[in-house]
Amino acid sequence: MGPRGAEGRVELTVVVPMYNEEPVIGLLFDRLRPVLDGIGCSYEVLCVDDGSTDRTAAVLMAGLTSWRELRLVRLMRNSGHQAALTAGFDSACGAYVVTIDADLQDPPEAIAAMLRTARDRQVDVVYGVRADRSTDTWFKRTTSAAYYRLMRQVAGAQVPHNAGDFRLVSRRVVEAINRLPEHGRVHRLTIPWFGFPSAELTYVRERRAAGASHYPLVKMVRLAFDSVAAFSAAPLRVATWAGVLGCVLGLVALGWSVTGWLLGHAVPGWTSILATTGVIGAIQLVCLGLLGEYVSRIFSAVQSRPSYMVGYDSADDPHALPGQRPGSPVLAGGQQHGRAEG
Ligand code: UDP
Ligand code: MG
Questions:
Q1: How far apart are CA 20 and CA 216, in angstroms?
Q2: CA 125 to CA 117: how far, in whole Å?
Q3: 143: CA distance to ligand 1 center in Å?
Q4: Measured from the CA of 78, which atom of ligand 1 is nearest?
Q5: Does residue 214 have its Cβ closer than 6 Å to ligand 1?
Q6: pLDDT tens digits for 21-73?
Q7: Which residues does residue 17 pair with via DSSP β-bridges, in sequence order?
Q8: Short-list 142, 141, 139, 125, CA closest to 205
Q9: 3-state SS track over 109-151
Q10: Cα of 96 to ligand 2 centre, how many Å?
Q11: What's the gap in Å between 139 CA and the centre of ligand 2?
Q12: How do the domains of the chain map onto residue ranges?
């Protein structure tokens, strides 16, 4: 019998999204495996290769031969951290599912405590809350503090402070996530939004074990905008307030020029005209841009394109059975499926 038990289920699935994580895989497995073997329940480690361009997939394929609980799902192309997590939730067969970063910033040892908390306190979600972020850069800490403050405002106070994507959820939550038709979801907001009974487990955020972060400023801004736009139409109201402000400024300018005309002053002021048209033009462009952001989300939702495509799943690969895995073709024989999120 394989690690998945008679009915194709395991007690615990650990989902690890990976994008170009070749340098950390060995370190991760060395710490993760003793923890999971020590818990003493059936488990699978579901590595989602998010279209890596380095040797991540090859290293994972090699790992399949020596760790029968390891499973590899390869996405056709880089689809982003959140989409890789969605792929993990869709494929996971555990009664509980933990999501953890590959880079050992989240300590694997906390998984045992999360599972214990979920069982003892009968909760569906255990959030990993970062108690100490001194290993993160000043910039990362400041921007992320601002992000969580903003998120609690737009998505509600049930969003835990400083909880990223290291968390445990029960099968009930996984099924709720998998039923969500939402496009571009941000799991750290949608999961609290459900309102399942939850607990928090604090941990110290460690330094990345190797390699470099895949969250440059552009991706952070994108995540922040996706998060706000998924929960609030408030940015659209910027247009209304900018319009009101424009009206007030226009009336003041009108009063000023009429007074000048009545007093017989010549009005040379092309500078002020240029300045006001410039400001108003800029406000209009900002508002159009905001509308565009929401229209593009409606457009993707209507298109209903999958947010990821699976190119290979070692669970569907007959060549990947323990003992027969070497030489099994990468990206062959795997069922191709994706998930429409729109
Ligand atoms: N990741 C991913 N797809 C991406 C970017 C990142 O699957 O397009 C994974 C990455 O391999 C890691 C996790 O998401 O396991 C978090 O990424 P990272 O550590 O780079 O982010 P940071 O911790 O710097 O915010
Ligand atoms: Mg990281």
A1: 14
A2: 9
A3: 17
A4: 8
A5: yes
A6: 999 999 999 999 999 999 999 999 999 999 999 999 999 999 999 999 999 99
A7: 48
A8: 141
A9: CHHHHHHHHHHHHCCCEEEEEEEECCCCCHHHHHHHHHHHHHH
A10: 23
A11: 14
A12: 10-212+306-331, 234-303
- Please state, in angstroms and rounded to a whole number, the distance separating the CA atoms of residues 256 and 128: 59
Each residue of 76-130: pLDDT tens digit?
999 999 999 999 999 999 999 999 999 999 999 999 999 999 999 999 999 999 9
The residues whose Cβ lies within 5 A of ligand 2, an ion, are: 101, 103, 105
Radius of gyration of the chain (CA): 25
Q: In what order do the strands lie in the sheet with 10-18?
A: 198-204, 125-132, 163-170, 94-99, 10-18, 43-49, 70-75, 306-313, 337-340
pLDDT: which is higher, 301 or 315: 315
CB-facing half-sphere around the CA of 56: CA atoms within 13 A: 24
Q: What is the CATH number of domain 10-212+306-331?
A: 3.90.550.10
pLDDT digits (tens, 9 = 90+) for 227-249: 888 888 888 888 778 878 887 88
Sign of the dihedral defined by the CA atoms of residues 147, 149, 150, 156, in that order: positive
> Would you say residue 262 has pLDDT above 60?
yes
The string of pLDDT tens digits covering residues 145-171 is 898 899 888 888 889 988 999 999 999
* Cα gap 125→118, rounded to integer Å: 7
Q: Which of 83, 342, 177, 28 is nearest to 73 (CA)?
A: 83
- Which amino acid appears at position 322 of this protein? P
- Closest-CA residue to 17 (of 60, 54, 55, 46): 46
